[in-house]
Every structure is written in C-alpha cells, then in structure tokens.
Specification:
The chain folds into 2 domains: 130 residues, 3-Layer(aba) Sandwich (Rossmann fold), CATH 3.40.50.720; 249 residues, Dihydrodipicolinate Reductase, domain 2 (2-Layer Sandwich). Helix content is 33%, strand content 25%. It is built from 11 helices and 17 strands. The protein has a 9-stranded mixed sheet with strand order 16-15-14-13-7-12-11-8-17. A 6-stranded parallel sheet has the order 3-2-1-4-5-6, with helices on both faces. The longest helix has 20 residues. The protein is globular and about 65 Å long. The termini are far apart.
C-alpha cells in the first residue's frame, strides 16, 4: 500500500512549477512506496499563491513559511525561493525533523552552507539539493562511461554555460522575476546561478576541484531596481571565467556569461582522457558524443577505419532512466530531470542508495564558487577547502 509523503512547497515561481510537476508525475512512471501529496504551498503574494495552488492542486496555503514548517501534517519541505532565504528555511525545517529538498545553489556562501549541513546532519533528516542536470540521461550515461573506465586517465575538462537575457541595459534588477541580478538576494551572478551547475557536473564526473584562478566582470554597472525604481550599482558578476586544477591532476576551464547573444541555455562539457572523450550540449540533450581510442575490454588501441566521434542517441531502454519513459527514439525533456531526481530521492528513503547530491556534497560546490569569487577579487590562485 502506498505511503503518503506530505509536501510543503515554499515558492511559486519557475522552480516551484518544475518541482510540483515532478511530485505529480513521479508515481506514474516509477514504482515507489511513497506517493507525494501536495499538502500545502507557501508564498507572500496571495493572488499569485492562490493561482499557483489552483493550477497544481495544493490542498492548503500558508503566507508564513515558519507556520508551514511547524505543521505536523507536513513531512517534506521543498525550498524553491531566492538564495538569501535558503539557510533560514533549511535550518528551521531540519530542527522540526522535516525532510528537505533545496534548490541550487545551496546558499549565499559556504558559511551559510555549513550551518545548513550542521542542522540537517544533527537532525538526521533526508535531504537533497536539486542539481537536476545529473538526471539528464545523456549526462548520466557520461558518468557511466567514466565509471566503466572508458575515458581512462583524465587530462582536460572544459565547461561552458552561456545565456543572453541580460544584455540590454534596460533590464532591471531585483523583484520576483530578476532577483538573480540583485546581489543581496542572489549572492552572486553567473557563478552561483550557472557555474554552480557546471561545477557540480564536473566534480561528479571528474572528482573534486582543488584550486582555481578566476576573472569576473560586470558589464552594466548600474541598473534600475524593480522594487524601488531607483538606479543603483549592480553587485553580481555578469560573466566569469576560471581555470581549475582537479584532485586527479587534470586541468579544467570554465566559462559562463549572460551576454552571449543567441545562447539561451548553452550548457556544454567535454572530458578528454587517455582512452576516450565525451562531449555534451544541453541544447541537444538527447545526444552524447563519445570518442573511443582504447577498447576497455582489451586495453588496446581501437584499430579500424571507423574510428571517430560517435553521436549516441540516448533513448534506448539500456540508457539511464529511459526504460521508465517512452519507446526508443522518443526523447524526454527538461521537466523529466526533476522527476528522475525525485524518483531517486524516494528510492533513497525507501532503503535504496543514498541520494546525491545532498547538502554535504552541495557544500563543496559552494566552496568552489566562493573560491572562484575570492580569486576574481584578488587575482590569485585560491585553494578550495576540502
């Protein structure tokens, strides 16, 4: 018999919709003991919250997240609010014994993340951080190839994450839509918003980053604030580039900007090793490119006239997650990554493998982000704390 898992959603924006959809869909495609129940949603704007609750069939509403957390009929708190609220909500939820799902980046900085980790581990509550791109089947397949030894000794990792939506100087900062441009709410710009994804993927595939040197720039120095109407300085980074040294000795390059005209969500990575390479582009999400130099079964160089990059259409039943969805050849999309992640989280609380990334894992990503910003400020190599 299914066990209800009563969800308290905090936030009603883009991520609130993505997570709500996953809660509604997960049991349609994955066999799990628990069934999420959309028990309550929480937000400050009553009109918008009412529309959100109606659209996703939440049973009740709250205007104060503290009241939501205090409710005895809530099992799990889902944090889909701006970054400056993550710490307080997660710490309070952990103290009440609630399971926690938190959007990325983990916090405003590593110091806040350490408080969150201390709280969840003291309480012993199940937790996950929603770095959803790990659950893109093609990226999961890349991880499988790495774990199977098909890449061999890694030499280089390259990541790019580019968008173009803030090029105009007329784009305001702050408010419900553009809080990511407000440093007091977001903590950082592309480093925490976009490169946090790239860093999480890189460390999942290639191990921890040990040292970085970085450069950032803010192209538009002043913008009108959406809430006050006043023109004020912009404190976030519009672009960030950094070099990385991984613990395994490989070298990495990372680049991100919101000023790449024509790029909407251009998220790529390439890993080059002694025995092979992989390349992925999120704007072509069902394809993983793979170059095979050495046969992992024999350890010898592949000698034939067809050696070259392969475009693997990641929709077969043997590919990660795809046996839960449609027939081979039919692709899945962005929203499915959240469903895949939630399915793994439910499996973890039902005795399956521990979920990753959790808050402890996401804290290391936060430490890399902090090191990047510190290096950009002082122009020096910065060690990433273990």
């Amino acid at each position: 018999m299914s066990k209800p898992l009563n969800v308290g959603m905090i936030g009603y924006g883009f991520m609130g919709r993505a997570h709500s959809n996953a809660f509604l869909q997960v049991n349609h495609f994955f066999q799990r003991e628990h069934t999420p129940v959309l028990k309550a949603c929480c937000g400050r704007n009553k009109e918008k919250l009412s529309a959100f609750a109606a659209a996703w069939s939440y049973e009740t509403m709250e205007s104060d997240w503290r009241k939501l957390i205090a409710r005895k009929d809530i099992d799990l708190i889902d944090v889909c609010v701006p970054n400056n609220l993550h710490r307080d909500i997660v710490v309070a939820a952990a103290k009440k014994g609630k399971m926690i799902i938190c959007e990325k980046p983990l916090a405003m900085n590593a110091a806040e993340g350490e408080e969150m980790l201390k709280a969840v581990e003291a309480a012993g509550v199940a937790n996950m951080v929603s770095f959803n791109y790990r659950r893109v089947p093609a990226i999961s397949l890349a991880k499988q190839l790495v774990d199977e030894g098909r890449i061999g000794r890694p030499f280089h990792y390259r990541a790019v994450y580019n968008q173009d939506y803030t090029i105009s100087p007329n784009v305001p900062q702050g408010g419900a839509a553009l809080w990511r441009l407000d440093v007091d709410v977001a903590g950082s710009g592309v480093t925490g918003d976009l490169l946090a994804h790239s860093i999480d993927t890189a460390e999942w595939l290639n191990g921890p980053i040990k040292k970085v040197v970085a450069s950032t720039e803010t192209f538009i120095k002043q913008r009108m604030h959406a809430e006050t109407g006043k023109v004020q300085p912009v404190g976030i980074d519009d672009t960030c580039m950094f070099l990385a040294i991984f613990a395994n000795g490989s070298r990495g390059t990372f680049e991100s900007t919101r000023y790449a005209r024509g790029r909407k969500n251009y998220n790529t990575f390439e890993l080059n090793g002694a025995d092979g390479s992989v390349f992925f582009d999120l704007e072509d999400p069902h394809i993983l490119q793979y170059f095979r130099y050495t046969d992992p079964k024999t350890g010898s160089k592949v000698e034939d006239h067809l050696t070259g990059w392969q475009r693997i259409h990641v929709t077969n039943f043997e590919h990660p997650y795809m046996n839960k969805w449609w027939v081979p050849g039919c692709t899945i999309g962005y929203e499915h990554t959240f469903t895949n992640g939630l399915a793994d989280f439910l499996a973890s609380i039902e005795g399956g493998p521990a979920f990753q990334p959790d808050i402890r894992c996401a804290l290391h990503t936060q430490r890399v982000c902090d090191a990047v910003l510190k290096s950009a400020a002082n122009g020096k190599w910065v060690e990433v704390p273990a």
